[in-house]
Sequence to fold (138 residues):
Amino acid sequence: MKKEKNKKVNSITKELKHITNPISDKLTFGERASDKLAQIAGSWSFIILFLVVILLWISANVYGWINQWDPYPFILLNLALSLLAAIQAPIILMAQNRQSQKDRIRAEYDYAVNRRAEREITDLRKQLDRIERKLKRN
Fold:
């Protein structure tokens, strides 16, 4: 009885480790890079820093502080932003797909745990009914 319980606990522990970090052992360089980029590019600090850099770029050119190296309409800035968007968007989509995959695995695990709990509750209910019937007879 105790060995069976320990086996159940061990299997649940292994499943939990797999669920908390489902596919981390098998990550490719691209997957790790997409996760890291999504983590950095999705932060407020990145957005604020990016906004400051763009405002500085525009200000420097509008006021002619450095001989308008990128004159209005800021073609070089537009090129840099387009390039950034073209590279960043697919990488962030890859990170979102990986997160969806992790969420799906977690949902499957939650379902399995709920089914197991339901079976155990049903068994407990049956045992309680048997105990109640025995007590009523006595």
Remarks:
- The CA atoms of residues 130 and 136 lie 10 Å apart.
